[in-house]
Amino acid sequence: MIPYIPHTEEDKKEMLREIGVKSPEELFKNIPQNLRLKTPLGLPSSLSEIELLKEMRKLSQKNVNLNEYVSFLGAGSYDHFIPTVVDHLASRAEFYTSYTPYQPEASQGILQVFYEYQSLICQLFQMDIANASLYEGATALAEAVILAHNFNHRQKVLLSKTIHPEYRDTLKTYIEKTLGLSIEEINYENGITNLNKLEERISEEISCVVIQNPNFFGYLENVREMEKIVHKFGSLYIICVDPISLGLLIPPGEYNADIATAEGQSLGNHLNFGGPYLGIFTCKKKFLRKIPGRIVGETTDRKGQRGFTLTLQTREQHIRREKATSNICTNEALNAIRCAIYLSTLGKEGLKEVAKLCLQKSHYLAKKISQIPGFEPIFTAPFFKEFAVRCPISPYKINKLLLKSKIIGGFILEKFYPELKNSLLFCVTEKRTRKEIDKLISLLGGK
Question: Do 375 and 410 contact (CB within 8 A), yes or no?
Fold first, then answer.
């Protein structure tokens, strides 16, 4: 281990001599005097290591954490149970120290992990190809739209307003400000995309139509009807999904989606104050050479033994920048490993059971809340594990009240949807117990 050794005065003098200046101040001589700070920074006095650790612990105790609080908050990040084996296996040194495997000497272990991850995701989504790896769900969706444009060279994108608002913001940053494409948003009716509005706007100018299912409100879109509308003029059909929902819902491949993406956090990754997360990206085989990231494949060596290799590398690190499909340059290997371990541990039936529990428990809560005077469901469409309710008082007051009882309340929809005033989006995962749900109902009822 290399010890931490601060620079001595002699070290500093030697460095200054080497670069040809007499003092550190000379390094800033090109900065005008009127732009320089004339007063001290106002930093607190230095602390010993013992004092610093105490201060950091004190600060950390101000955070609300899921070991002490019960969460009914979803909106893109979900409190699902993670089997202990996921933490145990993912903590092995050969996994958590792995770096981006683009070097020729990349280990067979990390390549196999990517291969297994890709294979599991393809089975779950029923799509031809899954790559590795993208930052998180929002950028995975943005890369899907970029692929669509590169494939058909059309200039317009139709985007449902039921897609996660932050995903839509990311798309606009990528697509409108970088590629100059135009985005048109399709409004919703009863919590799902308005099919009549979609059919009115679809044309040969549309590069792709982007849908989320279950959508941001938690409701199920008419994915089969949409497929017929989208493909009428050869536009690409892009779907963003909750991977847990695929334990029960039909996968994107079965309703002819061209590209399907997701946020992989719910598959064995902790919430961690917002990251790091994992962007899942799947598509049809015909788009293979236009996808971002990389594909790991299975092969045999000269002795006929099973091995793994980077089969496709269309990133700007590997080929000429102007020929790259994307400048995505990241490594979500550890998150992908956790995802692969989680899916392998649960298996098909386990994932189905998790999805079923989410469905049953969320519908139990929705039914009970609708019986409380003043509360009413905003939409009546079928939903998976999230649903929206209109409240008799400010949702800010409700969440403040719940927090006092160590319950993290729902998402305040007015933040992104001004028309949905006094509304909360509740989420119920398989972790929530009958006792926890009943306590929430009791508090909302003022008992």
Answer: no
Model pTM greater than 0.85? yes
Residues in a beta bridge with 82: none
Domain-wise residue ranges, the chain: 70-80+347-444, 84-343
d(CA 356, CA 251): 16
pLDDT digits (tens, 9 = 90+) for 141-199: 999 999 999 999 999 999 999 999 999 999 999 888 778 899 999 999 999 999 999 99
Note the pLDDT tens digit of each residue in 318-331: 556 666 677 776 77
| Fold of the CATH domain 84-343 | Aspartate Aminotransferase; domain 2 (3.40.640)
Q: How far is residue 83's CA from residue 278's CA, in Å, rounded to a whole number?
A: 18
Q: What's the CA gap between 242 and 51, in Å, rounded?
A: 44
Are 64 and 71 in contact by the 8 Å Cβ rule? The answer is: no
Q: Where are the beta strands (DSSP E) in 278-375?
A: 279-283, 294-300, 306-313
Q: Which residues of 352-378 are buried (b: 16+ CB within 10 A; e: fewer)?
A: eebbebbbebbbbbbebbeebeebebb
Q: How many residues does the chain have?
A: 447
pLDDT score at 311: 84
Comparing 313 with 305, the larger pLDDT belongs to 305
Q: Is the CATH code 3.90.640.20 the one for domain 70-80+347-444?
A: no
